[in-house]
Amino acid sequence: MAYFLQQLVNGIALGSIYGLIAIGYTMVYGIIGMINFAHGDIFMVGAFIALIAFLLIMSLGLTLVPLALVLVLIIAMLLTAMWGWTVERIAYRPLRESFRLAPLITAIGMSIILQNFIQVAQGARVKPLQPVITGGYQIFDEGGFAVNLSNIQILIVLTTVALMGVFWLIITRTALGRAQRACEQDRLMAALSGVNVDRTISLTFVMGAGLAAVAGLLYLLYYGVIDFFIGFVAGIKAFTAAVFGGIGSLPGAMLGGLIIGLIETFWSAYAPHGPEYKDVAAFSMLAIVLIFFPTGLLGRPETEKV
User: Fold this and answer.
1) Which element (helix H / strand E) includes 128?
2) How far apart are CA 214 and CA 95, in angstroms?
3) How far apart are CA 244 and CA 43, in angstroms?
4) Residue 230: in which H helix or E strand, if any?
5) Rounded CA gap, 168 and 162, in Å?
């Protein structure tokens, strides 16, 4: 029982990170119907920006860790959001009205560009970070096996819940959220009604990139190492989570992220050769769900007018 509870804690923490990345996928798809396959690499760029910002701030003599982390978070979100805006403005907006495969090919191309840019700029070796948030709580003990809840896991879950609440309020209670929902339903009619469609889509990319930066910082603090390739792996899993939960649904993206994180963690813990086949387990479960729920767990079927 204790071992199960420990894996449950680990899976929720990992799934929360996947969920934050998945929200970026689902927001972009919900408005323009396009899968931004470069979003995983935006997450990777955010992690590198967070690492560089943290090292620079600590080199300046700021030893108060909470204040340093707040500054790193602000810097990472702002700079990563600028990357998200740039990618949308240069790579996606000119192809918005093109045939459907063109933005997909461009997204894959932007993913490769970002990977190689970071590889050239920062090197191919992994970049370590010494543990910043340490300590935790022992919540259960059974037969000498203790279930521990670390402070970084608590931070990950609390940050994810808080951001999910903030974004839910933005989507449902603000003018920007109404504009996003209008663009999701019909971009042409939204434009005729006075909605600035280009600005709304750009802000959606900016918001998704900001969430990816938070996920990048949390990933860095949790695992302590990053490299130029983490965006591809985490991005594919977050995309799987978005489809799992129902592409276009914010709660579905978070639910899908939690499920993927739990599947990966439990498979690694219990299955023979689990760590080697944990990705196979997650993608196989996705295939099974889509057979019975083609729109995902919380997705809505689309009706197309002819």
Assistant:
1) strand 127-128
2) 28
3) 20
4) helix 230-245
5) 10
Q: How far is CA 172 from the centre of its chain?
A: 21
Which two structure tokens, joined as six digits, stand for 222?
């949790």
Task: Check residue 148 and report its DSSP letter.
Answer: E
Sort 119 into a burial class: Cβ within 10 Å, 0-12 / 13-18 / 19+: middle
Residue type, position 65, single letter: V
| Neighbouring residues of 177: CB distance < 8 A, sequence distance ≥ 6 | 170, 171
Structure tokens given for 245: 């939960």
Residue 99 corresponds to which amino acid? Answer: F
User: pLDDT for 197-242, tens place per residue?
Assistant: 999 999 999 999 999 999 999 999 999 999 999 998 888 888 888 8
pLDDT-derived band at 34 (thresholds 50, 70, 90) equals: confident
Sort 291 into a burial class: Cβ within 10 Å, 0-12 / 13-18 / 19+.
exposed
Where do we find the tokens 């970071």?
A: 118
Kindly report, residue by residue over 108-120, the tens digit of the pLDDT. 899 999 999 999 9
The number of angstroms, rounded, from the C-alpha of 33 to the middle of its chain's C-alpha atoms is 18
Asked if residues 300 and 248 have their Cβ atoms less than 8 Å apart, the reply is yes
* Coil vs helix vs strand at 130: coil
pLDDT in the model for residue 306: 47
Please state whether the predicted TM-score (pTM) of the whole model is above 0.90: yes
The DSSP secondary structure of 16-79, one letter per residue, reads HHHHHHHHHHHHHHHHH----TTHHHHHHHHHHHHHHHHHHHHHTT---HHHHHHHHHHHHHHH
Average pLDDT over residues 255-277: 87
The residue behind tokens 């276009």 is 248
Owner of token pair 């339903």: 185
Cα–Cα distance measured from residue 294 to residue 243, given in angstroms and rounded to the nearest whole number: 9
Question: In 3D, which of 208, 203, 173, 186 has the Cα closest to residue 305?
Answer: 186
Domain layout of the chain by residue ranges: 2-229
Counting Cα atoms < 13 Å in the Cβ hemisphere of 18 gives: 33
